[in-house]
Each structure stands twice: as C-alpha cells, then as structure tokens.
Design brief:
Helix content: 10-25%
Radius of gyration: 17 Å
Largest sheet: 5 strands, mixed, barrel
CATH topology: OB fold (Dihydrolipoamide Acetyltransferase, E2P)
CATH architecture: Beta Barrel
Strand order of the largest sheet: 1-3-4-6-5
Structural class: mainly beta
Order of helices and strands: EEEEHEEHEE
Number of domains: 1
Length: 138
C-alpha cells in the first residue's frame, strides 16, 4: 500500500534561518515558522490560535532559504512531516515534529527584488516574481 505524507503551510518566519553543513558537506538550513488562525467563541469573543513548526531544508533550497529568508517574513512551505525522538539530559524521551521542505516560496519582497531581481521560487531553482494569492497551489 502506498502512503502519502504532505503538508502545506503559510506563515511568518519566527527565527532567522540557521545554516550548517553535514560531515559530507551538504548544506542544511532550519528555521521556525508560525501559522495563526482566528475564530469566534460561542459568546462572540475573538481568539487567535498560533501553531509553530520547525522547517528543515537541504542542499540548494537550504542555501536559498538562508540567503533570502529573515525573521518576520511570510513564506509558503511545502514538504513532508517528519517525527523524531531523542533522550533529553533529564533522561526523558522527547518528541518533535518538523517539516522537511521540498519547496519554499518567499511571499514578501526582499531587498533583492527592489533592485529588479526576482526571488527564488523553490527547490527547482526557477525564479518567480511577486506572488498573488491566486498563484498558491490550493
């Protein structure tokens, strides 16, 4: 039986990307991104609920995220959800879910787009201009 694991989010980058290299020399960048939803309670009070995700990008996409993303910018992330566990210093098992990105779209204009250059669109390396909501894949 074939499985399917895909996640799509749009949110605000909450930390500046951190790039490092594996022992074999492959770049990997991680950053946090927050998504929010608003809802009204039965008594009409408006609430906001925020979810935080850790995003991990590899190779060329890692380099692009490190170069073009910054805290506070909006981004669209497409990838797969990956769970991992480890033992903490206190001896308890910890769990974490993270998104392994296959595509990241930079929704805010960065400094490079002010000079007329297009921002990268995703892991395929194809440049793209400013995004409209109608361009999103859902």
């Amino acid at each position: 039986m074939v499985g399917f694991n895909k996640i799509l989010i749009i949110g605000n980058v909450g930390t500046d990307p951190e790039m490092r290299y594996t022992p074999s020399g492959n770049p990997v960048t991680s950053f946090r991104i927050a998504t929010s939803r608003f809802y009204n309670t039965a008594d009409g009070e408006r609430h906001q609920e925020t979810e935080w995700f850790t995003v991990v990008a590899w190779n060329q996409l890692a380099e692009q995220c490190n170069q073009y993303l910054a805290k506070g910018q909006r981004a669209f992330v497409e990838g797969r959800l990956h769970g991992r566990s480890w033992e903490g210093q206190d001896g308890h098992t910890r769990f974490s879910n993270e998104i392994t990105a296959s595509r990241v779209l930079f929704l805010d204009r960065g400094p490079s787009s002010q000079s007329g250059e297009a921002e990268p669109a995703g892991s395929d390396g194809e440049p793209a201009g400013p995004m409209d909501a109608e361009d999103l894949p859902f």
